[in-house]
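Quick one:
INPUT:
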């Protein structure tokens, strides 16, 4: 079915879509990365979960001792919880949805968490075709020291059909690849100067306009940026 496409960018008017209408025209090919950037509570995870429905092989990386998002994926969306990549059930259907959640009860468990996630990322890289949901990019990069591996996903993943769906509250503290290697960016309102400098420093298309828009987005409205064709849209969803 042919889909309508988003409006081309215009300096003065960025079209606003309700979420359903946006999802109707949003094209996300396997292998394209998506990044969500916004302060805590802005709605990143809520929107990310909507997009993950589109993919058949999804592995969500759970890094907190307790996480209602991950529990929700397991209980409501029938993701299978595994503690290590080897616990993955055999593939019996043309889809697989996993939450990789290494045990995290004591602070020293971080070392095992690092090993388990590192291993899973390497295995998925070899297999290709997976969508990795990395909701806490800052933690994965800085605490688990997985920056290099994630950078390999961002730079090489596309040709292997690997999509990295990453979220962060701190745009200034995650690799630039999260922006310039992602085809799809979603920003929420942010007034932190350090974060805004990173946004404006993206270079190329519409950087100043994006920065300006980000400072005055309404609640529960995301600014969508397609880094490949420069399309911009505002996505309004939920009750806000
Ligand atoms: N469009 C919306 N309308 C109303 N409530 C929303 C909307 N989007 C998210 N929320 C609510 O706001 C809260 C925070 O949303 P969410 O967890 O998605 O934010 P987040 O950006 O992922 O935050 P964090 O950075 O802390 O993980 C949740 O309780 C969620 O139900
Ligand atoms: Mg979140």
């Amino acid at each position: 079915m042919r889909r309508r496409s988003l409006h081309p960018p215009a300096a003065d008017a960025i079209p606003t879509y309700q979420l359903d209408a946006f999802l109707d025209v949003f094209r996300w090919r396997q292998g394209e990365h998506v990044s969500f950037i916004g302060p805590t509570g802005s709605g990143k995870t809520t929107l990310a979960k909507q997009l993950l429905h589109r993919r058949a092989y999804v592995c969500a990386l759970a890094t907190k001792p307790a996480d209602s998002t991950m529990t929700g994926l397991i209980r409501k969306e029938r993701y299978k919880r595994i503690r290590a990549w080897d616990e993955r059930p055999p593939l019996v259907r043309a889809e697989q949805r996993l939450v990789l959640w290494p045990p995290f009860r004591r602070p020293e468990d971080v070392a095992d968490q690092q090993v388990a996630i590192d291993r899973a990322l390497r295995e998925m890289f070899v297999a290709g075709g997976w969508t990795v949901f990395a909701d806490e990019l800052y933690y994965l990069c800085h605490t688990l020291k997985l920056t290099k591996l994630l950078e390999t996903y961002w730079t090489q993943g596309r040709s292997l059909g690997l999509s990295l769906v990453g979220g962060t509250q701190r745009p200034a503290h995650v690799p630039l690849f999260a922006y310039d290697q992602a085809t799809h960016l979603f920003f929420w309102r942010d007034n932190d100067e350090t974060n805004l400098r990173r946004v404006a420093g993206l270079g190329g298309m519409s950087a100043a306009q994006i920065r300006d828009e980000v400072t005055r987005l309404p609640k529960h409205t995301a600014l969508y940026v397609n880094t490949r064709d420069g399309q911009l849209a505002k996505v309004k969803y939920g009750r806000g």
